[in-house]
Amino acid sequence: MGTTFTKQLADGRTAHVTPALTAFGDVAYDAIDEDGRRIVSGWLQEATQRGVAPERRPAGCTHLIAGLSPLWFTAEEATELAALGEQAKAAFDASEEGQQLAAWREQQETNRREAIARTAVLRSPEGEALVRQRDRLLGSVEALLDAGAEQRARAHDDEGGDPGLYYRVQQPKTDGAVERAQAELDAFDAEHPEIVAALVAEQDAARDRFLDID
Question: Which of these, 149, 151, 141, 131, lies nearest to 192 by C-alpha position?
Answer without folding.
Answer: 131
